[in-house]
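for the record, two folds in this file. i put them one after another cuz i was lazy. first one right below, seq on top, structure tokens after. the second one comes after a little note so u can tell where it starts
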Amino acid sequence: MLKAAVPTCREGVVAHSGTGIEQVGSQELLLLDRILAERSVRSVYQPLVDLDTGAVVAYEALARGPQGSALERPDLLFAAARRARRLTDLDVACRAAALNGAREAALAPPYRLFINAEPEALDGWRPDAPAGRATGQPGGDEDLVEGVPVTVVVELTERALAARPAQLLQTVARIRSYGWGVALDDVGADPSSLALLPMLRPDVIKLDLRLVQQHTTPDIAAIMNAVHAEAERSGTLVLAEGLETAEHVQTARAFGATLGQGWYFGRPGPLPQPLPAFTGTPVHIVPRGDQLSERTPFELAAAARAPRAAVKPLLVEISKQLEAQARSAGESALVLAAFQHARFFTPTTRRRYAELATSAAFVGALGEDMPAEPLPGVRGAVLAGGDPLRGEWDIAVLGPHFAATLVARDLGDRGPDDQRRFEFVLSHDRELTIAVAHALMSRVWPEPKTIDLPALPGPAPVLLPHPRVCAGAAGPSSSPASSPVSSPVPSPDSLPAPLPADLPEGLLQRAVSAVTTGLTISDVRDPDQPLVWVNEAFLQLSGRTREQVLGRNCRLLQGPGTDPVAIAELGAAIAAGRQVRTRLRNYRADGTPWWNELTLSPVHDAGGTLTHYIGVQNDVTAQVEAEENVLHLAYHDPLTRLANRARLDDALRTALRRRERTGTRTALLFIDLDDFKLVNDRHGHSVGDALLRQIAARLRTVVRADDLLARQGGDEFLLLLSDLPAEAAERIATRTAEQVQHALRHPFEVDGISVQAAASIGISIDPGTALHADELLRHADAAMYTAKRGGGRRHHLSAAAG
């Protein structure tokens, strides 16, 4: 897309709303259709300057709708396209407008033209169809690239890589094949942008405007250190956005920016005629080649390092050490791991990765039969049957100042699991780690986004169903929402009443076509069971045209998160001629997932032969997401994103049951912040809440991977230490309490305010005999109050500890 040039909102409005019924105004749809048909999207251009000389070196294309129309504002234009499922069409139209404007103005090297790519429309950046068709159908860039006199720099966001990793990496490789450059936009707006920098190796890093417009904080300093490190390693240029004053320019230069953009240098408008003579230093496009590789992580590593052999327990401990490094890096870490098969993603490992997901920018876990989302916040991938990655155990950890990878290949031993041997490579080489991370990230499937869209001003819109797709196949799902229910063929008594004989001709057809539920008819006499009729609502649901679906099986709508078990049960019901009802995760043409409540009903001819199936699709995405959200909220604290008391209670009871079998010990630390009320009284509750979030993030850095940190409520935290050796339990628990207190000694910077924190900690350890979870918590609580009465800033071990 072209970045939205609206001063009152963040340019380039984000992602797609996941609600099942959305407000779509009919006037909005008609206007959008006309804009796309008439290709009336406009481009305005904002200069990018060399901060050393003030010379213009590039222009950024910004999108606007027709002047004076209800969709002139680009945030509304893109929101309307999302609601109408025409985002790719709009993205292509905007790109064409930008390039056509550059042609007309004779924009030529060494000038560069910056154009944004919308994450949800990456499929439009492919060279398999001309982009300038009058039909407005999405296409690629070959026709656009040919004859473009200027080098293009495509702007992407960290959100794009997090949302659709495999597609974005492929798009970047394609962009570079044109000789174009890549810029990563809004760096610093979110910590994940720092973690994802090395995955894209951008030619230009565009700093988020808040970095130069706000007062410097420790967080901003950390961002700038990370940006400087990447720029030094890769030769990336740094561009500062939002420069409106001379002070902003000075700050940008201090941060290392050599390029600048903002109203201080010029507001968006037409390209100047004639263009001024180029006097600056050209934006350098580094030839990086295709970063995608056909090789697996082990093949990549073994080509650079000699593999060694080891048994599984050693590799487990190495993996835990790398995970600990990721936890230390916090919100700027990227963690990708492959586990061969989902059965090796054990409950203990799941707990570690669930905790990683609360702090790291991106966490991925891959393996055969691994769900597309193994845990909340953990991304998965469905590996193809012949994917050699199924034989590997890999982990890559990337941060701004740390990189390490462990890749291992199974030697095929058939003994006990803890005696299985692997050949492995352990490396801290950053380039090799990035290559391994690329190989893993290129297999990760898209993630749905649920971000509200701005409404179109004007009359109240009508309600239409959320357009999505039909039943598909292939791909595991972690959600219990997929549960086929079969029922026998309905008896004659249950069939609907016959239609009136005097029904006007064509009325039934018009009525069926007008319903807002997706309806399909498939011919099961044909071995491929093609669709022979669909209604308009189904086309909206699928995001496709009638020509694209008729004659094809519904498997064209399958996706990575579609439950293969549910698909198999659907096939069995069809083979038996039964009615079947299920809930499936399907995918629209643009890759956006949705939950489909599907009913398939058989149709028999006069002789009783099964000839067709009628499908009824209802979008229940909102319901499923609400259920999943409720489950997540039930076990997590919304302020700190830590586990809550309910989650800790479950984990504590599980740990106590487990220690009865293993002979280990369980310890509980009750952490109460000292004098926290004074923070709220002096600085307000917003500062208090921000401090709690920072404390939670810092406490994560001192706990083990298998420990569970939870917020009890208010200024109280609980830390569960499980599976401790009996002889060392007291020493480990006491040392952990000391580490917590040490972590809190350094002041916290909150909204420019330096705040000191401290805590009183009560420790309770189960004695190895029968002890209820509530008793362990009560002993820890009492020990905490003993520490508090002793003056605070200390820990106390419960006398009831074993």
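(here's the note) second protein begins now
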Amino acid sequence: MSKKKSKISTNTPNPSATTTSGNTISEAVNLKESTEHAFLSFFQKYGIYILPVLILLIASFLYNDFLFGKNAFLFKDIGSDSYNFDYPKLYNLADHWEKYGLPSWSFEQGLGQNMHPYWFDPFTFLLILGGKQSIANNLIYVFLLELLLAGMLFYLFLRTRKVEGFLAVLGAILYAFSGYMVLGTTWQMSVFGTEVVYAAFLLFALEKFISEKNWYFIPLPIAMITVHLPFYLYLYTLLIIIYYTLRFAENQQWNFGKWFIGLATIGVISVLGVGIGAFMFGSNLFQMIESPRGSGEFAYTNKLITQPVLALADSVQRSTNFMRLFSTNMIGNAETFRGWNNYMEAPMFYCGLLSLVAAPQVFFFGNRKTRIIYGVLLGLCFWVMLFPYFRYTFWLFTGDYYRTLGLFTLFALLYLNIKAIQQIIEEKKMGVIALLVTVVVLFIILFGFAPVENLNKSLQKTAALLIVLYAGVLFLISKRALQSVGLGLLLLICMGEMAFFSNNTTVNKRNRATKQEMNEPGSGFNDNTVDAVAYLKKIDPSPFYRIEKEYASGTAIHASLNDAKVQGYYSSRTYQSFNQLNYVRFMKSVKLLNPNDETSSRWIAGLFGSPLLQRLCGVKYYLANAPNTFADYTRMNMDSVALFGNVKVLKLKDNLPLGVTFDSFIPEEKFEKLDSTSRQAILLQAVSVDKTLQAKLKGFKELTSANIPEQGVTIEALQSWVSQLKRDTLQITEFKPNLIKGNINLDASKVLFLAIPHDKGWSAMVDGKEATIEKIDAGLMGILLEKGNHKVELAFEPPYVKEGTYVSIISLLLWGAGIVLFSRRKKKVVETIDEEKEI
């Protein structure tokens, strides 16, 4: 026994033994380890500074043509929402901000709509402050800010999660340049880019709470999500539940009581965040609910909820799902895309091929519990990919979407990817067989599930090469002597992939608007319409009139229905997700949109096809394409006014002002029995009313038919109706979008009709007393007036903003007080511990 001990003692290195260079053996070992880890130590110390440099470096290559070239960050292909929706909205907001201050009511959207909801987020506000003329140029710089913030916040999330500095930088790059960010922002930067930033902030705040018991950050991303989109509170509640459950299961044995208490604590803290965002929440939520989609009048719900629960996604959708894991453009880009739905709506799963190669390694390192946890996480991702009903459920049957579900999926992939590589670095080993199996499976999917039609074979081959390279580099990282080389190669390959592999096609091989066309006269939103509108404003001092166009100025593949927002005139066209519900009801009542087509409630072409309703709703001028001869418009009773290039300006001879009166009505139930022409004609003779209002119209004449001549609606009949309505009209003395004042003299009781959608935010005063604004013609405004002279005042105030602001102020004070209180308590605990140590 003593001999064995002696032998062991003899072979044990002596700490004091020296090498030929004079260093001890232990010092030599430490020096070797220090050298091997110098690369990781450098990123551990300076990662927070290195990351923004790398993001800007990648962005300078990827977005070079937007930063230094001719293109604006606006897309005219399938991503035309950036051009047709985002840009007009931002321009209109900036214009309103310059003229009136905080956004309220806009007559440039449909027949008018509350523009306050969804206007505020930090990035939109920066663009507004920059001025309307600079928006097209500034979009790319605000996007760069989103890119940097998304990367930095994801980096902080990973560092709080105790991830190596190098891997935190790597993960942040993969996140910032994920398909969801790069592709999504070419569709709607104000939605997708902002969401990516807020989501990273939320993960960081959650991890702060879980790892450090620090709750202070949680209310901030919750408040931002509250302001962004109310529906997303539901979506990100799901993320909170999933992430907290994942981390709870990783850290300890399952205990339902502890899990529930922790989750409930986050819930209470989150309510404070909702309160901070209340200054926008009520306004946003109200518009969402009071919209065609939110009210359920135009929605997919009934169609989606009746689908078979376990019906498998069709082959096209399955193929698309798999291919979009490898690249956003594997089966085409923009108009060449041939997968499920369209290029934008197809899932945005891509977050670098490294994630696909490395993530399965977590099953090699994990114990039985963690393998089950990560298996369930990946299983959930694939389950919703394969069975659409569960995707519909995720979206509460509001639409056939992926969208945020794609972001959650790439969260899972990135989480497992980073965790796997960290374990390879720490353990200096990996599952080689698991790696080989992963590569084989990925090749089977990449080549076996790829569609024959429209496959980008060049990307497919490049993806295969990158998969092999990543596998090789991961193997190098598992070897102590080659780890630094492997890590350096890993970073370089990832950066190259993000800059040149898939994202380059997503951004640069697209139909984009140029800075010149967005800023200089000649085409697009700056076509001859601008000159025509400026001319009309100069020659016609009337406080209010509408202009209709028979053409779209925008040059995207989809017709632009928001031209008025950029070109500065009042119209009736509109395109947006949540159009004014009562305007849609009015258009539905006169059969100018299809009640069975959900998209018709978003894409509203307005009144340009209805000469009768143009008169009713105050259209005074009509802009036509010059190739059409004047003879085409004589039957519509118009005069030629001017010609600007290819834009012919026409004036309706028998136009009506805002604020005409009626002494006749038709009950809604009788109105609904009429055909489309009769409905439009009778609205120039009477107001359509429900039974409640009908009871108030004693002494008014009831009509049951439109009194259309046998030969149809003639100019004479039209002139007769208009002439009758011109007798008693509102004489406007002051006009702003949110304030209308005027005088009117009536020789009998009448209904003052206003071609403005009925909205909770509008209030009326008649002769200094509050008056009720009635809903007439299915959704427009009317005020019942008695005989005599009256002063009428209409004012608009966005609903729930004032009340929400009070809640926000109180919530901010509570948040601040909570931070102070808990900080003091924490300080006292630390002082007590120090005192006990001294004793």
